[in-house]
Each structure stands twice: as structure tokens, then as C-alpha cells.
Design goal:
The complex is a heterodimer of chains A (524) and B (445). Chain A has 11 helices and 29 strands. Chain A is of the alpha+beta class. The chains are: A alpha+beta (524), B alpha+beta (445).
Chain lengths: 524, 445
């Protein structure tokens, strides 16, 4: 009794489910009925260890020092009325430095942040590309490419980035030197990079989704979407599935292992203009030219909320803590908690006068939203957007050069093979619960695919059907019909019927011991 | 309006001086660590491949014997100590750290059939087919003396010897089991049950007065010295060549059998084997437990050494070389790290007990990494890709073909048995005999 009371008081227990892997109740279901004592003990011991690990992970939350940002209105204040200039007066000087606008003439601009939020890459439509450490204000490189730039993307760290140019995709290093020209990727509109798989995905005017492995340089997969030009693409960060938004209002889900989409969703009544997926891979936000902003549950593929946008949204982004940023016209509005409850007013909003927004993106581990627009790029502060506590072994904003190099090596060693991209990330190592017939059939097919010449030899040869009359027929010219042939065919057909009749026997006749030799199984 | 915005200072998150270590902030939130399982799988795969790449178990051959090595003994307290006896009566003492012979003498006129060490001192015993048992002390007066300290003469040839853990008595096997006192010229006791020849005799090192012996009439007999009575007699389907007591669980022992298997028995319940260790393709000649009681090493007539997890049925590794002949004696060293094999070709070979282990001191990070890798390998051990890599061994062609043939034979026997059962009337159908009871012909108490 005393122990139970103690447990109830323990505040850690409330957060344990967040750290638990799998369902302990499900795993222990029926274990006590097992006859194998050793197995029973092993399962129980393992589950105990898992439980302990989850508890320890939960109790380590105590060590997280930072607290997330917030805006708390007092009285009749509304958070969406707070302008950036008013906010600037409230925050410290280093945060105030994070609100800035760069007036650039080569817009509209696409932007991309590295995974640790430290470095920014911008690409102006008219050929201006710049990479810099935006917090320290250190420029890494600036390029004038003198041709159209449609999208820019960092690769695994800040040393390399890809640019979708007029015809091909190019890879540059941080000094701006051209490293590769990817001639397989033609007229690309949108780039994305899967950091754990080292895959650069691109989709363009021809509607081909291509995956290029940036560690080996191989083109891993090339899928024809058959849905025409595509310029909306985003990755699901939880399972590395690529989502494409198409002109007919569908969103298709792709993995490099299937030539057809894994899922097709009819999301809008017009072209899809923007898409974003949250970090846990649970929710998807899509915007269409039909003026709708829809929020989807990616576990059931069903809409959760529908919002109306006065101007079709041009870009969407979801922050680490679940804020949704919508860029429409010259506005950016940020919504808090839009998935589970229908919101009536935004959390924050911002106007970039006279300059339509092109690309919005939240900065990881910062309360900052960056966006590229027609006349440059801007950065605004959105309290409560970023995850407060980073994990230095995963993405470290204060990474040193040595740490970056070390992390690169480890990332390459841990590179996940493209074959492992599936909708269910927990798939590997799971027990295959399919019936044995299905598993055997799959095995057989895999074997046949691996040994095609042996597989074809195993053809079943029907014997005893090669009578002289049939051989005669075969030798005859196929397209000539004469009376002899017609007679022969008739005879064969009659013989066949006769044989069948004989085999079937007379149903009224009682069964005899000799029936077992007649060839047809009859109930004795 | 209350406002709080994330604002980290670089000073707080980075080190102050270049001598400091870097600050590593962790956040174990699963959403910050995507693809956890896939990355773990990849690490497990890499670890498995690395393990197979570094699997170089052979350390060295200790050469010196002219004839084959048929018996070896380790010291219960000394690591750098090994004694081996050859087929020509040659006795050798080895320094394992230097991998060379430090003392040798032609101690007997015939094949040496057993050597055994004591707990105290550096003396050891040897017995031979020349009907003598001798006590040697190479380090007496620091001279490397080659004259025996004591000689005991028996009536028949001796086939094995084992010394008591603490007392000054030892047991020899031959036509019967003789118990000798150091100070008496004649055996103090003679134990016998049946008339056949006894092959080996082994004192239990924990439960000190229990002796296990194997006879050429396919028996394993246990004696208790306190009552001078036999305890149990077990008859197996085929002859047992060697016995090893579990050093941690005094009531358990394993028997290396002529039928290619090693049987683990509990001396309290001998009606069935507790475990059957399969994989050898010829008679198992020798067996030894690791000092932890968790691992077993066996040497076979098929010219291989196999390592088993004591609680599993199949070997976890196989060691062989081109030149190694029939293995007649194996030992697990007392530091649980090395394995020794003595074979027909006259060499004693030193192997690592874990083929890919890095020897020497490991620092904390390396150890932590290896432990992590070990756990991951265990977690994904049943994934086909990893299992395939982990199980793959290049074995000599003779072993491979014999393994295949044996599998076919066992399978056909099974099929035949099933067919017989299928065509037997229900009332005549005998109950199935569990696999672990099959080798046991009978037990007598």
C-alpha cells in the first residue's frame, strides 16, 4: 500500500509514456501461459529493462535546463496584434538581432536552414545564391549564377549544398566551388534532402521524382509520377517518405522502393500549392489554389481541420513545437495548435509590404521564422516555435569544426539504406506475422527473381497428351483448313468427352473396389 | 504581454578553455531522434561485419613435441602455466606468455595418457601406459630438475589421472579406479563397478569428493569418496571420451561422446541430458569448461576445435587450420580469454576464446562502444541478413561435406521414423522419446 502511494506522487511517471517504446501490455500479453520457462523469463526481464530505460529517460528531463518560449496576453491583449517592432522592445539584444530583413534584388527567394539551425542558404530566382552563418553574420559564399535558380537545399551539413538551376542540379561546397553537376536531374523545381539516408530528392517539370545518393553518387530511384509538372514536395521527417503535391489536387506518397505511389490522397479541388509535415510525422498541412488550407492526420489519411485562406497560400512550415506558419500574398500568419482544435484567430501575423512571400521556414532550435519573398529575405521572431533543448549528438547549434567532422563520419557509418524506407519505421526486426503460405510464396518469388534461368526450367510438363493425331495436326500448316483436319479435330474432341464420361462413371451405380483405378476420385 | 524567447548564449553551451572538454547537451525526446530502429539496425549490421572481419582467433602454435599431444593440464591458480604430455613419453612445460617450452623431459617409456596439476605449488603428476605415475617438480631449487619427485608403479597401464582439489590424493584410471595417497606406494582404495576398462577419471573441483569416470563399456560412473561407493552408473548409446565438471555449478558436467555430440548432465537427474551440443562431424575427443561455466570448448576427431555457449545447442564458433590434425585435448584458460588445443601433429595451439576480441587494455569509451555493439547484435540477431553474416564460416571441404551428409542422414532417419509412426496402428504406437532422452540407454543407482 505504501509503495503504491509513493508511485502516485512520482511526477516522472506522468511523462514516461513519451519515452516508452512499444506497448508493454501487448508484449506481456499471454506470457504467463508460455510453457517455455526460459523464454518467459527472457521476455519478462527484457520488458522490465525497457520499462526501466523509459523511466530513466523520463527522469533525465530534469536535466533539461532551457524552457520553451511563449507569449502570454494580459487582459484584452491579443497575441496576433503584437508586431515585430513592438516585440523588439521586449526582447534581449541578441534576440533583437534575429529580426532582420535583407533587401535583395534577385527575388523571389527560396531559403533553407541546416538541421542545427545555424546556417542559412538563400537562392534568388534570378541567380543569386548565398550561404551564411546567419546568427554570427558570417558569409560563407555568395554566387551570381546568371541563370534561373528554382530551389536551394543544404546537404548533410553546412559544407555542401545543392541548387536547382535552369536545366540541371548543381552541388557546391561552402566556398562556392561547383563540385558536381547532376545531369540526371533536369528542370528541377523542388529539392529535398533526407539526411539519414543521404538521399537528394528532386522533382521538376517532367514530373519525375529522382533520388540521388550523395554519399555514393548513385541514382537510387527514378519514378515517373504521371501527373505532370510538380513543384510541391516535402519529406516526412519521421519516415523519409516523400510527399508530392500535384496539379490535380492529389498528394502522393513515395518511397524509392516502389514505382507507384504508396498512398494517393485527393486533397484539393485545384492544384496543391504548398505542403508541410510536422516533426513527429503525424500531421500534414496542405494548401491549394482552391483557397483551402487543410490539416491531415497521416495515420488515418483523414482531414482534421479545414481553414480558408483569402489568398491561396504559397508556402507552409511547421515548427518543432507544432506552430504552423502560412505564407499567403505578402502576409505570414502563424497558428498555434491548429491541428486538434479549430482556431479562430492566428497566434501571430506579419506583413511584408509589397512583397509576396515565396518560402517560409522555421529555424530549428530557435524562436525564429525565416521567409524568402520577392524583394529579399526576412527573419521574424515567433516565441514558442523552436525546441528549447537540443541534443548535441543529433544537431548541435554550437558545433565545432572537429565535432562536425566526427559527426559526418558517424552519419556515414549509420547511413540507412534506401531499401529500408517504409511507411512503418519500426518495420525492421519485427516478426513477420503473415501466414506461412504467404511467407513461403514470397520466398519462392524472391528465389525465382534471383535465379531466373533455374526458375524457368521448373516448368510442369504435361505428359501423355502428345498423341499421333495431335502431332499430325501440329505439323499441318496452321492457316489451312481441310476436311481431314476438321474430322481429326472432331474426333479428338469426341474422344476427350468420352474419356471424361468414362472417368466420371455412372453416379447411380454403387461404388466398387475397382473404382480406385478409374482415375477420378469418388467417395467410397 | 509576457514574452519569453529562446536566447542561448554561446558561452554557456561551449567550453571556456581549450583544455576543457566540450559540453554535450542531451535531450532524449524520441521525436528528436528519428529512425532510431533503422539506425540501430545499421549499427548492428556494421558491428556484425566488423566482428567477422576481425575474427582472427589463431595466436600461435607451441611446437616442441615430436609425437602427438594427447593430454594437457592447466594450473588452477597460475595463468602462465601449461603442461603437456606427448605420445612418445615426452613431458613439456610451457610459458604461454612467451609461447615457448621452458622445461621438458622424456618422463615415461610409453605414451603419456594424463597429466594433472595441484592447487599448491608447481608440482604436477603424469601417468602413462608404462604403468607408472610420476610427480614432477621442475622448479625445485630453481634448477629445472628432470628427475621425478616420486614414482608410483601400478599393475596395469594407466589411462587417466586427476588430482584432488585440496588433499594430497589423486585418482588414476586403468583397469579400475585407484585412489592414491602421495605418501603411500600402493593405492589406498580401488573402486570398481563392472569389469571393463576405465578411460578417464575426473575429480569434481567444487564438490571435492565426487569422481566421474568413463568406461569403454559406454558407461559414465560417478563415485563418492566419502562412502567409497559408486553413486550412479549411466549407460549411453556410445562411448564417452572425456568429461568436464562445471566449475560454477558443481552438480553439472558434460560428456564428450563418440557419437559426435557433447551431452550435458545433471548428476542428480541422469535419466536425460540437460543439453545436447551438436555440430562436430566426428567423435568428440576432449572437452573443457570455461572458468565461468558459461562456455564450453571441444576438440574433435574431425580436426576442429569448437566453442559452445553452454546453454545453447549449436557451436558459436569453429577453429581449424590447415596443419592441425585430430584434436585430443583442449583447455580453456583460467582468465576466460584463451583456448588451447593439443593435437596429433605434435603442436599445442593457442587460440582466442572470442575470435574477434581485441586483446589488451581497453579504455572506457572503447569498452562502452563494444558493449553497445554487443547488445545491438543481440537485439537484431534474428534478422536474416545479420544472422547470415554472423553464422557464416569458411570450413574445410571435408567438414562441409560431412556436415551436409550428416544432415541428410539425420533427416532421412527422421522421415523414416515418421513414416513408421504413420503406418502404425494407434494402439501399437509408442510414445515419442524426447531427443534428450534418446542417448541414455539406462541409469543405475
Amino acid at each position: 500500500m505504501v509503495e503504491k502511494k509513493k508511485e502516485k506522487k512520482d511526477p516522472v511517471l506522468a511523462i514516461v509514456p513519451k519515452y516508452a517504446r512499444g506497448n508493454a501490455h501487448e508484449a506481456l500479453d499471454g506470457v504467463n501461459k508460455l510453457e517455455n520457462k526460459k523464454l518467459k523469463g527472457t521476455i519478462k526481464r527484457r520488458e522490465k529493462q525497457f520499462k526501466e530505460a523509459a523511466y530513466k529517460a523520463a527522469s533525465s528531463e530534469l536535466l533539461l535546463t532551457e524552457e520553451g518560449g511563449y507569449l502570454e496576453p494580459e487582459g484584452i491583449e491579443k497575441t496576433y496584434q503584437l508586431t515585430q517592432s513592438a516585440l523588439k522592445k521586449e526582447v534581449d539584444i541578441s534576440t533583437a538581432h534575429k529580426m532582420f530583413t535583407l533587401d535583395l534584388k534577385f527575388g523571389p527567394y527560396s531559403i533553407d536552414y541546416t538541421r542545427n539551425g545555424r546556417h542559412l542558404l538563400i537562392g534568388g530566382r534570378k541567380g543569386h545564391v548565398a550561404a551564411f552563418d546567419w546568427q554570427a553574420g558570417k558569409l560563407a559564399c555568395e554566387l551570381q549564377l546568371r541563370e534561373t535558380v528554382r530551389d536551394v537545399k543544404w546537404l548533410h551539413n553546412e559544407t555542401l549544398f545543392a541548387v536547382a538551376q535552369k536545366k540541371y542540379v548543381y552541388i557546391y561546397d561552402k566556398t562556392g566551388t561547383e563540385i558536381h553537376c547532376l545531369r540526371n536531374h533536369i528542370e528541377v523545381n523542388k529539392l529535398d534532402f533526407l539526411p539519414y539516408h543521404f538521399l537528394l530528392a528532386s522533382v521538376g517539370n517532367a514530373g519525375y521524382l529522382k533520388y540521388q545518393d550523395t554519399s555514393t553518387g548513385k541514382l537510387v530511384a527514378e519514378h515517373r509520377t504521371k501527373l505532370g509538372k510538380c513543384d510541391v514536395m516535402t519529406q516526412n521527417p519521421a519516415n523519409a517518405i516523400m510527399h508530392l503535391g500535384h496539379g490535380n489536387g492529389t498528394v502522393t506518397l513515395w518511397s524509392p522502393n516502389m514505382t507507384t505511389p504508396l498512398v494517393k490522397m485527393q486533397c484539393h479541388r485545384g492544384p496543391v500549392t504548398a505542403m508541410a509535415i510536422d516533426h513527429a510525422g503525424k500531421y500534414m498541412a496542405t494548401a491549394g489554389l482552391d483557397g483551402q488550407l487543410k490539416l491531415w492526420d497521416l495515420r488515418s489519411y483523414k482531414p482534421m481541420q479545414e481553414y480558408f485562406t483569402p489568398t491561396p497560400a504559397s508556402s507552409l512550415s511547421i515548427s518543432q513545437r507544432g506552430l504552423l506558419a502560412v505564407g499567403f500574398g505578402p502576409h505570414v500568419s502563424v497558428w498555434k495548435n491548429p491541428f486538434t482544435t479549430k482556431q479562430t484567430s492566428p497566434y501571430m501575423s506579419h506583413l511584408q509590404p509589397g512583397s509576396p512571400v515565396h518560402d517560409v521556414e522555421f529555424v530549428p532550435f530557435e524562436d525564429v521564422l525565416g521567409f524568402g519573398h520577392r524583394s529579399g529575405i526576412s527573419s521574424i521572431v515567433v516565441p514558442g516555435a523552436g525546441e528549447a533543448n537540443f541534443d548535441a549528438l543529433e544537431a548541435n547549434p554550437f558545433q565545432t569544426k572537429k565535432q562536425r567532422q566526427e559527426m559526418e563520419v558517424h552519419a556515414l557509418l549509420d547511413k540507412i539504406q534506401p531499401e529500408m524506407i517504409t511507411l512503418d519505421v519500426e518495420h525492421v526486426g519485427k516478426m513477420d506475422k503473415a501466414p506461412i503460405q504467404v511467407i513461403n510464396k514470397e520466398k519462392k518469388e524472391a528465389w525465382a527473381a534471383a535465379n531466373p534461368e533455374q526458375a524457368t526450367e521448373l516448368k510442369f510438363k504435361a505428359r501423355g497428351k502428345n498423341s499421333s493425331s495431335r502431332r499430325h495436326l501440329r505439323k499441318k500448316a496452321k492457316n489451312v483448313i481441310d476436311q481431314k483436319k476438321v474430322d481429326l479435330l472432331e474426333r479428338i474432341e469426341n474422344d476427350k468427352k468420352e474419356r471424361a464420361k468414362r472417368r466420371a462413371g455412372n453416379p447411380d451405380e454403387p461404388a466398387t473396389a475397382l473404382d480406385r483405378f478409374s482415375g477420378k476420385k469418388r467417395k467410397l | 504581454m509576457k514574452v519569453k524567447v529562446l536566447s542561448r548564449s554561446a558561452e554557456e553551451a561551449t567550453r571556456e578553455r581549450s583544455n576543457d572538454i566540450h559540453k554535450i547537451q542531451r535531450n532524449l525526446d524520441p521525436t528528436l531522434h528519428p529512425f532510431e530502429k533503422a539506425r540501430e539496425y545499421q549499427r548492428a549490421l556494421n558491428a556484425t561485419k566488423v566482428e567477422r572481419m576481425f575474427a582472427k582467433p589463431f595466436i600461435g602454435a607451441l611446437s616442441g613435441h615430436v609425437d602427438g599431444v594427447y593430454c594437457m593440464a592447466k594450473h588452477p591458480k597460475k595463468l602462465d602455466w601449461l603442461v603437456s604430455g606427448g605420445g612418445d613419453g615426452d613431458l613439456r612445460m610451457w610459458s604461454l606468455s612467451e609461447q615457448k617450452s621452458i622445461w621438458s623431459t622424456v618422463g615415461h617409456k610409453a605414451m603419456i595418457t594424463g597429466v594433472s596439476s595441484f592447487l599448491n605449488g608447481t608440482r604436477f603428476l603424469s601417468c602413462s601406459n608404462d604403468r607408472t605415475v610420476k610427480i614432477w617438480d621442475p622448479e625445485e631449487n630453481g634448477t629445472g630438475s628432470t628427475t621425478p619427485v616420486a614414482v608410483y608403479t601400478g599393475k596395469n597401464a594407466f589411462s587417466g589421472i586427476s588430482h584432488h582439489r585440496s588433499d594430497n590424493i589423486f585418482a588414476t584410471s586403468g583397469s579400475a579406479i585407484d585412489i592414491w595417497d602421495h605418501d603411500r606406494a600402493e593405492p589406498v582404495q580401488t573402486l570398481n563397478w563392472g569389469v571393463d576398462t576405465i578411460n578417464t577419471v575426473k575429480f569434481n573441483q567444487t564438490e571435492k569428493n565426487i569422481i566421474a569416470s568413463t568406461g569403454s563399456d559406454r558407461t559414465i560412473i560417478l563415485y563418492d569418496l566419502r562412502t567409497s561407493q559408486p553413486v550412479t552408473k549411466l549407460v549411453l548409446a556410445m562411448r564417452t571420451n572425456a568429461i568436464a565438471w562445471n566449475p560454477m555449478e558443481a552438480f553439472n558436467f558434460v560428456a564428450a561422446n563418440e557419437d559426435h555430440n557433447v551431452y550435458a548432465f545433471d548428476m542428480r537427474k541422469m535419466d536425460k541430458a540437460q543439453n545436447i551440443l551438436k555440430d562436430h562431424v566426428s567423435a568428440v575427443m576432449s572437452v573443457d569448461y570455461s572458468p565461468t561455466g558459461e562456455e564450453i570448448v571441444t576438440g574433435g576427431y574431425d580436426r576442429t576445435v569448437r566453442l559452445f555457449n553452454a546453454r545453447q545447442g549449436h557451436s558459436r564458433d569453429i577453429y581449424h587450420t590447415n596443419r592441425m590434425q585430430r584434436v585430443f585435448s583442449v583447455l580453456y584458460t583460467m582468465d576466460n580469454k584463451y583456448v588451447l588445443s593439443g593435437s596429433d601433429d605434435g603442436n599445442v595451439r593457442l587460440w582466442k576464446a572470442r575470435a574477434s576480441e581485441k586483446m589488451g587494455v581497453k579504455d572506457y569509451r572503447e569498452r562502452a562502444h563494444l558493449e553497445y555493439a554487443e547488445k545491438l547484435k543481440e537485439k537484431f540477431s534474428s534478422v536474416p541478413e545479420i544472422r547470415r553474416i554472423n553464422h557464416h564460416r569458411n570450413v574445410p571441404k571435408a567438414i562441409k561435406s560431412a556436415t551436409k551428409k550428416k544432415a541428410i542422414m539425420i533427416q532421412s532417419r527422421k522421415v523414416k521414423e515418421e513414416n513408421v509412426r504413420k503406418h502404425t496402428k494407434a494402439e501399437n504406437l509408442k510414445e515419442r522419446i524426447p531427443e534428450r532422452k534418446k542417448p541414455v540407454v539406462g541409469v543405475k543407482k
